[in-house]
Amino acid sequence: MSEPAQQPENMQPQSQFPYRQFFRTIDLLADLQAPKQERPWLDRVPEEVEEKEYLLYLGCNVLRTPALIQTAAAVLTRMGVDFAAVGGPANCCGIIHYGQGDRPIATSISSRTLGKLRSFRARQVLLWCPSCTHHFQEVLEGTVEIGFLYLHLTQFLSENLHRLRFDREVPLRVALHHHTGFAQSDLDAACTKKILAAIPGLRLVEVRNRRELGKSCLPGQRPDPYGGKWRELIGGILEEAREKGVDVLATVYHSCQRELCAEERTYPFKVENYIQLVGRALGIEHDDLYKSYLLLGDEGRVFEQARPTIEANSLDPEEARDVIRRTFQR
C-alpha cells in the first residue's frame, strides 16, 4: 500500500481523514485498468535514476484514469521528448495532508517527493495535476527548496506545437470546459485552446465557463463541494453545449473528466479530455476504461470486463469488487 510508505513513520495525523483508504483506492483503480508491466510511469522512484531532459510529474489522482497518462506519455514520445513520468501515492506532492490540516506530515511528504523529482536533473518538470500546480505555487514556493523549473503540460505543448505533427483530421465541433478567474487556470485554458485550434478539422465552439466553478471540478476545489451551485453551473454548460450542437465537450483537468464523463448518458455528445483529442490527431488511442466502467454502472459487468487486468496484477478479487462497487456502481 502506497500511503504508509509515504507518510513519515514518526508522525501521526491529527485529522480523521481516511488516508489509507484514499490512497489505496487510487492504486486499486490504476490496477483495475492498466497492467503494471505496460505502464509508462514510475510509481516508485529508485535510488539511481537515468537523467532526463524533462520529467512528467503526474501527482496522485490521475492514476484513477490511466488512459489519460498513457495518452500523454505516447504524445510526448511521438514528439521526440526525452522524458520520464512519475506519479502515484508514493510520490504525492503533499496537498492531501495539507488540505486536512496535517501540516508537518504534508511538509515532510513534499520535501521527500521534491527530492525524488530533483534526482532526474530534468531541464523542466511538466506538471499534469492542477492541484499539484496550486500546491507548488501557493504553498511550497518560498517555504521549501523546489530546485527545478516547472510548468503545466498544456503550456509545454502549446509552446511546442511545431513538434506536434498532426497527421489525422479530427472533424469535430468541440466546446472546452475549463476553469477561469485564476491566473494559472486561465493560462491552462488559453494553452489548451491553442493546442485544440491547431488540430486539423477541429472547430472550437465557445461555451461560458464561470469563476464560480472554482479551480477544478474536484469537490474540494469547488466553492460548495457537495451543494447545488456547482451542479447548476455545470448544467448550464452542458445545456449550452447541447444547444450549440457540439460533438465533444473537452476537459482540461482529469478531475473534471471524472466528474463529467457520465453525462454521456444524458447528453448527445462525448466528454473527452483534451489530451485524447491530441492523441487522436496523432493516431494514438487508449480506451478510457474509467468512463466505460462508469457508464456500465454494474458491479458484475465491470468486474468481468476488468478480470484480465485484475488477474494480471494479482489483485484480491474481493478488494477489486469493493472498489468497483464504491466507484462505478450506479
Structure description:
The protein has 330 residues and is α/β, with parallel strands linked by helices. It has three domains: 2-161, Rossmann fold, CATH 3.40.50; 167-288, Rossmann fold; 297-328, no CATH class. Helices cover 46% and strands 10% of the residues. It has 14 helices and eight strands. The chain has a four-stranded parallel sheet with strand order 2-1-3-4. α2 (19-33) crosses α14, α3 crosses α11 (274-281) and α7 crosses α8. Mean pLDDT is 94; it is low at 1-5.
Give me some keywords for this one.
single chain; 330 residues; Rossmann fold; four-stranded parallel sheet; globular; disordered N terminus
How are the SSEs placed, and which strands pair?
Elements: H1 2-6, H2 19-33, E1 54-59, H3 66-78, E2 83-87, H4 95-99, H5 103-118, E3 124-127, H6 130-140, E4 150-152, H7 153-159, E5 173-177, H8 183-197, E6 203-205, H9 228-243, E7 248-251, H10 254-260, E8 270-273, H11 274-281, H12 289-296, H13 299-312, H14 317-328
Parallel strand pairs: 1-2, 1-3, 3-4, 5-6, 5-7, 7-8
Helix pairs in contact: 2-14, 3-11, 7-8, 13-14
